[in-house]
Design goal:
Layout (H helix, E strand, L loop, with lengths): L1 E6 L5 H9 L5 E7 L5 H18 L4 E5 L10 E4 L11 H22 L4 E4 L4 H12 L6 E3 L3 H15 L6 E2 L2 E2 L7 E2 L5 E2 L2 E2 L11 H19 L4 H15 L4 E9 L9 E10 L2 E4 L6 H26 L1
Length: 315
Amino acid sequence: MAKVTILGATGRLGPFAAHTISHIPYVSELVLIGRQGREDFLDGLVRDLADSFAARGSDTSISSSTDLEDAAKSSVVICTAGVARQPGQDRLDLAMQNARIVAPLCEQIGEIAPNTTLFIVTNPVDVMTTVALHYSRLNPERVFGMGTHLDSMRLKALIADKLNVHPSEVHTRIIGEHGESMVPLWSATTIGGIRISNLPSYSRLNLERMVEMVKTSGEVIIKKKGSTIYGPGEAIATLVRTILGNENRILTVSSYIRSEVHDIRDVCIGVPARMNRSGVFPVPIKLEEDEVRAFRESAEKIRAFTQEVMEKLRE
């Protein structure tokens, strides 16, 4: 049984993530940590969630705190802390705002919970994963970000809809940046075990349009309802369940790569990784030439942006 801590529990995503995680049978204790001044909200949230546990018949323990020390002995610490991007806000400005929040939190987590797996959700997630890795001083396999996991699931759902098949029959991945330079792996996309390009219906698919829909999905949701909650919340629970259940599933998350993908290295970026209780381990893969080129460009983009953020953090 495991203890899971959520940082940023007073935000929009944190409370729903707590609800989804509470369904995981391996979780015996949930700790919701928020900023000082929001104690009443946290108390109300804990009471509300505890009522839902009672209605469900769950004996999961739940508590709240504004003291990071209460994350001690957590098996998984999830960082959702940060600010959302405002209309017209420069991408670097957002990154710096969130880096200044994530860096000190992760530095403390590395000291308080040195055996934890640190899971970053805060955007821009690939950059924040590097920030978390550097400041926590945890081993690389113990730090990962949401990456392109939800992007991959969005593409999976679109393909299933277009081909009129059950989503479980679709296996696909998006690697690279959680953002504009994401790279769909059509060469690794199968339907019922059949490579998608071998299906007659493949020629009727508008691949570029589908990928564009994935890229803009979050932006459209935020514009229409203010924030993305349910998709990310369920994705968070899937990843936590995979780790705590020691499932050894291969999911696409932001991980520190050494040379697993065509000798591209030293950057945190979305790649297929095997996930279990010991951590997150990128899987060596070979790609088509156009995919390698696109992934290399995505990695260089993230590397340059990450370096800029890290340099400014040191100033």
